[in-house]
Write a structure and sequence with these properties.
The complex is a heterotetramer, with two copies of chain A (340 residues) and two copies of chain B (377 residues).
Chain A (H helix, E strand, L loop, with lengths): L10 E5 H15 L3 E5 L15 H5 L4 E3 L4 H13 L3 E5 L10 H8 L2 H4 L9 E6 L14 H5 L5 E3 L4 H13 L4 E6 L7 E5 L11 E4 L4 E5 L3 H16 L5 E5 L2 E3 L3 H11 L2 E8 L4 H12 L9 E5 L17 H13 L3
Parallel strand pairs in A: 2-3, 2-4, 4-5, 5-7, 6-7, 10-11, 10-13, 13-14
Antiparallel strand pairs in A: 1-8, 6-12, 9-11
Helix pairs in contact in A: 1-7, 3-4, 8-11
Chain B lengths: L33 H26 L13 H10 L5 E3 L5 H6 L4 H8 L26 H15 L6 E6 L6 H12 L4 E7 L2 E2 L2 E2 H4 L16 E5 L3 H16 L5 E6 L18 H8 L3 H11 L5 H24 L7 H4 L10 H21 L8
Parallel strand pairs in B: 1-2, 2-3, 3-7, 6-7
Antiparallel strand pairs in B: 4-5
Helix pairs in contact in B: 1-2, 1-10, 1-11, 2-8, 4-11, 5-6
The chains are: A alpha/beta (340), B alpha/beta (377).
The complex binds thiamine diphosphate (2 copies) and magnesium ion (2 copies).
């Protein structure tokens, strides 16, 4: 039913969280088997309003407020998906996702493999993630690497309203479990034109947001905002609008190494930016790939600009942890100016 | 529902009908259904024969670690028989009896315990396409059961879900949360705790200070009952009622089936480390097969000749299944990739190639030296 | 223990002693202890004044998101007062009243809600060195409470542990497992569910099909009772009894304190999206401060003048605390490393350097442009 | 009380699991605050017998069989450690550790930081991990990377009886939470002399098991067995007993990069071997470190020999997943023969 012909262009000016809402609305309208469950997603429309209006529109049977029990939210989603529904479970903040891990790792990620294809778990776990909104402890985590390590999962992170819309639709259409992490710092930061035409974007692919020849900047999630600003500024200042290439990883698992390799072979320099703690973060996997496959093309060492291996400070000091435009710019400058 | 600490029981340990126990005086009508009782008796015997065979196969390295269901055949077979074909069964790992009744082939059960994923790949002949695979992480299946039950409700179907677990599992948050969700959402699901008194070496009394496990349901205001899990008639009755209620949209139910694990926890366990033989000897007096046998003998449904035929028949079926199992070749190494994702991620291309090269390297070496490489497949 | 669905209550909503409710006829003796009741009344007022101030401070950006305890002062203050100094308190995030009674300074509470870790760094003057910090991940504190209770038991100490949680929290596996462990190990711990009828927007009836949350305890065979959480006298009585039992090694207890969240969930919430004003208006009739006030007026413990002084006193204390809070400078950026490990891992050396450089870079830039960098500290 | 003078040499021939038992016995004898909790650790002595005899010796109050509830095991351990005990919690298999993650990530790893040092969580979580013992599903996981990503945790993996003994004592003495993962394939594979003298080994350090000049081989856990065999064979065959250097990482978090850097600066080549899935495994962090800091010294690309990004196959086919001596040797050969 996801037929493009039925969906002529329908552009709306929306924020990232509104784009999420639009995609959910679209998917639920098109496919009766799509249901949602989570805490406060019903009348309240989610604490960030991502599900605003959907219970009213689709009823309590399809938009379910659950008891406060993340383990059950994930476990029930596994059961629902096995039984032919497409559950979209919301975890209110990524800091509360850990109780779901047993179900995601032991079941969602394995059901297809365990039964040799007899059963499967097409489900989406949505959670807002990342810091920078002056929220209390546990409301700022970026632990996407935990999920990226698990065979059988997909992890997707959008960084603009349009990518949020298209990637969420893709996640819902995908026949396997997808962890869909929403950079909450970007939820309302900007408003863009999004075509509400039901078109999914490709999974397993990154997005080259700016083309460039001298350095490859790779990031995802909320950091894309600062990366874009830095790249546009540096490209403009240098008078070379093809100086820095910016790749939005978007598909955190699996990683689109083909695009990354292509870019680094061209530029010979790479800076990776992520908000999560450095050690064993997703940036490590990208840098490792470079160490294995692209060293010969590298003109300078790979640089990771990441969160520290500390707990994200409470909000009074969180800016000392978060990555600024200046931090990114400094790393790029250093990479551009160093040579083996 | 039955009061607690007074398990539903129809037959004495010797198979005599009780009249004054468990609050129910008359045997249920279905005891007049000779074929039903004989079916049950046959399945219980096949389950036990399978069990003995599986233990033996483990001892000789033909399968891996195996959890015996010795002494718990009434629970398991009653579960299998009370289920309607399109009810959904969500088992744990000690449910060989139910799986057999559901129409799973013995060779597939062996395949599973022989370390081959294809053991969970087949649809049970007498079961639902949604019947879940064996679940190893304790109690997690309870969450899946409520998810499936919720799906059935949303899809406005009239099936029930039956979920089994152990007494140990009744301590885990998954189960407790699942009970609560089932109650809150009024879901068509029946939980059966196979209270076999032990969770590996941990005795029942350490699991909970509660005198009964049935009372865990009151936290969720779900009706519950204790049942003598060695009394097929009581188990079948309770399960039939629970599943009927669920199908009638009357909500969830919890059954605590009281039994005893006559075997070691698994073939990897040595129960003599932590429990005395007297306890086990005493429990043998309560075992379920003899009880039902005595009853059907008394009723005139069964005789020595039939018994002899049954045992022969079990052995014949078993032989055939073991042969069938042994004839199934291992999957290709690359099969480990085939079912990870339905839409193939290009990022895995290289790994499949590596897997093939690795196989060739190690396999060739094994051919040449027949050492230095762990044979198996 | 009290029967369920009949909460312990001594005072009517208007503060009149009840004689025929809750199964207890006589007011407990401690109501003759004027100083105790006045102490309670003062703390409840200070709690409310603090609460109003904190909400106001959030509105002007002086602190961050804040969860008001409006209407739940009796529960919180009774918890604080029933605790002995060396009992251990394991709070959740809505326990401002108990924290104040425990002797925590208001400036430290503001520090916490102002996004500064040092808000949890100080030992409560009237509390135990083991009093736990505010716990954000729902219900996880229940597991810590049983761990602490178990430690006290192993160390053969005679203290009790008091753990609070919300009605929403009562659905989470952590709490349900913790109840079970407390029962199985017979631990000196009292759990108090602050049933304020809402978990953000999720109403009580979605949390569980059980008519009472007190009955969750029967799954673990722990005694439990419902108490009117707006009746300080009932709360104090129940808590005193529970903690006494625990200290006497008589095992755990669960109290369901029935109250109402008169405020939004937090300052980030808008409750009008999901509940009607009539419900809130009705709940205001039951609020705890007026009730105790009426009672102490009737008893002659209190008069208008004292009331005036109290309100002034609260404001004075608050002003001082807010000033003290505002005068506390932010920590140095590198403080984020200081308490990660007691024995410093060399692997972090570089990161501390980077942190310092980063600070200089961004701080200097902020100085120069006063833009492009998110100020704060 | 852990006084060396009181502990004259006392060598015993023990397997790795016996060394664990010996260290537990020693720690419990020396320090009354050390307690243990877990499933089947009492009379049964643990399913692998790591705690054999300890309940009999130290009583049920200090060696506690718990209900079957991993969340509570970790959560109670947090409470116990805050209250002055040193709990050692056993999770029966690493495949069942996921229900503990909320407590480990949100509390154990943060209590000291959250309270600015007022409270802390000196606790050890022990779990057998890894495949190769023909066990059922979920009994073969190697997900150490999940823990290695979490600021505030330490992750330690021994690979010999002596290191098991000394590192476990160090973990118990450590004032912060330590995840102690025991390679169950090595539990009984060999017997060595271990000095039961209560001497802890240093944490945060790797062990150079073989010195060499041409290539640095880094591994940990059960794979050390195959690595040792390969290195000894290659060094012997080449007639250069200083050819391949073998580093046992041992401290998975934090990583002893100083030793690794020193080695790679010398050899210029690196092969990393681990059983865990490749993507975002701990090998990625090591390779990333090389890409950032040591590229200029590298004569050939870094190589990771790891588990695949699949579920470990059930045991009938697990050998196609596990890493063999030949796999390691092939990687070393390739690294030695390639040059930029
Ligand atoms: C989450 C989890 N923890 C631990 C185990 C290891 N384990 C397997 S069976 C078992 C005991 C289960 O006892 P019970 O629930 O009573 O079932 P029974 O085996 O007695 O039928 C344990 C601890 C597991 N499989 N899953
Ligand atoms: C594990 C976890 N899940 C979700 C949240 C987000 N959250 C914070 S408060 C809350 C509702 C709690 O309700 P309740 O337990 O009734 O306590 P109350 O706030 O009403 O006092 C939720 C869902 C959280 N903090 N922790
Ligand atoms: Mg059992
Ligand atoms: Mg509440």
């Amino acid at each position: 039913m996801n037929n493009n012909l039925e969906n002529p262009d329908c552009f709306k000016q929306v924020s990232l969280v509104e784009a999420i809402n639009m995609a959910l609305d679209y998917a639920m309208s098109q496919d009766e088997s799509v249901v949602m469950l989570g805490e406060d997603i019903g009348k309240n429309g989610g604490v960030f309003r991502a599900t605003d209006g959907l219970q009213e529109k689709f009823g309590q049977a399809r938009v379910m407020d659950t008891p406060l029990a993340e383990t059950s939210i994930a476990g029930a989603a596994v059961g629902m998906s096995v039984a032919g529904l497409k559950p979209i479970a919301e975890i209110q903040f990524m800091g509360f996702i850990y109780a779901t891990l047993e179900h995601l790792i032991c079941h969602a990620a394995r059901m297809r493999n365990r039964t040799r294809g007899r059963l499967s778990c097409p489900m989406v776990i949505r959670a807002p993630f990342g810091g920078g909104i002056h929220a209390p402890e546990h409301h700022s985590e970026s632990t996407e690497a935990l999920f990226a390590h698990i065979p059988g999962l997909r992890v997707v992170i959008p960084s603009s309203p349009a990518r949020a819309y298209g990637l969420l639709l893709a996640a819902i259409e995908n026949p396997d479990p997808v962890i869909f992490l929403e950079p909450k710092r970007l939820y309302r930061s900007e408003v863009h034109d999004v075509n509400d035409n039901g078109q999914a974007l490709p999974l397993d692919s990154c997005f080259t947001l700016r083309e460039g020849e001298e350095l490859t900047l790779i990031s995802w999630g909320a950091c894309i905002k600062e990366c874009l600003a830095v790249v546009d500024q540096m490209n403009a200042e240098s008078g070379n609008d093809k100086r820095i290439e910016l790749i939005d990883l978007a598909s955190i698992k699996p990683i689109d190494f083909a695009t990354i390799a292509h870019s680094i072979k061209k530029t010979g320099r790479c800076v990776i930016v992520h908000e999560a703690a450095k050690t064993c973060g997703v940036g490590a996997e990208i840098a490792a790939y470079i160490a294995e496959h692209l060293m010969a093309y590298c003109k300078s060492p790979v640089k990771r600009i990441t969160g520290f291996d500390t707990v994200m400070p409470y909000f009074r000091n969180e800016q000392h942890y978060l990555i600024s435009e200046l931090d990114i710019k400094a790393a790029i400058d250093e990479s551009l100016s160093s040579d083996f | 529902m039955m009061p607690h600490n007074n398990p539903l029981q129809y037959l004495s340990a010797e198979g005599e009908p009780l009249t004054e126990r468990g609050g129910r005086h008359e045997l249920p009508d279905f005891v007049n259904d000779q074929s039903l009782l004989l079916q049950a008796y046959r399945w219980m015997n096949l389950t036990r024969a399978f069990d003995q065979k599986a233990v033996a196969l483990q001892r000789t390295g033909i399968i891996g670690t195996y959890p015996s269901s010795l002494g718990q055949e009434a629970i398991s077979v009653a579960c299998g028989m009370a289920l309607a074909q399109d009810d959904v069964f969500v088992p744990y790992y000690r449910d060989h009896g139910s799986l057999l009744v559901r129409g799973n082939l013995m060779e597939h059960l062996l395949l599973y315990w022989g370390g081959d994923e294809r053991g969970s790949a087949y649809v049970a002949k007498a079961g639902s396409a949604l019947d879940m695979p064996i679940c190893v992480p304790i109690a997690t299946q309870a969450s899946h059961a409520v998810g499936i039950a919720s799906a059935l409700k949303i899809q406005q179907k009239r099936q029930a879900v039956l979920c089994t677990l152990g007494d140990g599992a009744s301590s885990k948050g998954d189960f407790l949360e699942a009970l609560n969700l089932a109650g809150s959402w009024h879901l068509p699901v029946v939980f059966v705790i196979n209270n076999n008194q032990w969770a590996i070496s941990v005795p029942r009394h350490i699991q909970s200070g509660a005198p009964t496990l049935a009372q865990k349901a009151s936290a969720a205001a779900i009706p519950s009952m204790q049942v003598d899990g060695n009394d097929f008639i009581a188990m079948y009755e309770a399960l039939t009622e629970g599943l009927h209620r669920a199908r009638q949209r009357k909500g969830p139910m919890l059954i605590e089936a009281i039994s005893y694990r006559l075997s070691d926890h698994t073939t990897a366990d040595d129960a003599s480390r932590y429990r005395g033989q007297e306890e086990v000897d005493k429990a043998w007096k309560n075992e379920p097969i003899k009880r039902l046998q005595n009853f059907i003998f008394q009723r005139g449904y069964w005789d020595k000749k039939a018994e002899g035929c049954l045992q022969d028949d079990c052995q014949t079926q078993l032989e055939k299944s073991v042969q069938a199992y042994k004839s199934i070749e291992a999957e290709q190494p690359e099969a480990m990739f085939d079912y990870m994702y339905q839409t193939w991620p290009a990022a895995l291309d290289d790994q499949v190639v590596t897997c093939g090269e690795k196989y060739k390297r190690n396999y060739l070496a094994a051919q040449q030296h027949s050492s230095g490489f762990n044979k198996g497949a």
